[in-house]
Amino acid sequence: MGTPNNIHHIKPAHLSLEGFKKLNRSKKTAFNMELLIRVMTADIIPPSLVPDILSYINDDIDAVLQEVTEMGMCNKWLRKETISESTNTSE
């Protein structure tokens, strides 16, 4: 017989449905904001509306990023970031 296949023991990390919805909602919101800003003049778009919409997008992306970080899906990049930060501080 061959060697045991360890692939069956790996639990793949998946983004939750809620996280997937937040990413898609943020993408669509950002796209629609871009279209509105390109088409409309400053007197049509209330200036106070833009920060609220950007904050909304930020909250969704922040929640998804936290979820994938907790799942360990960012470990590879976080380790590199930590190593480079410690290298920069020792100089």
Care to describe what's here?
With 91 residues, this protein is mainly α. It has one domain. The chain has three helices and no strands. It has helices at residues 17-39, 49-70, 75-90. α1 packs antiparallel against α2. The N and C termini lie far apart (54 Å).
Structure characteristics:
91 residues; 3 helices; 67% helix; mainly alpha
SSE map:
Layout (H helix, E strand, L loop, with lengths): L16 H23 L9 H22 L4 H16 L1
Helix pairs in contact: 1-2
Order of helices and strands: HHH
Structural domain count: 1
Q: Label the overall shape.
A: elongated
Largest sheet: none
Total helical segments: 3
Q: Strand pairing plus helix content: what structural class?
A: mainly alpha
Number of strands: 0
Helix content: 55-70%
* Beta strand %: under 5%
N-to-C span: 54 Å
Average of pLDDT: 75
Give a quick rundown of the structure.
The protein is mainly α and 91 residues long. The protein has helices at residues 17-39, 49-70, 75-90.
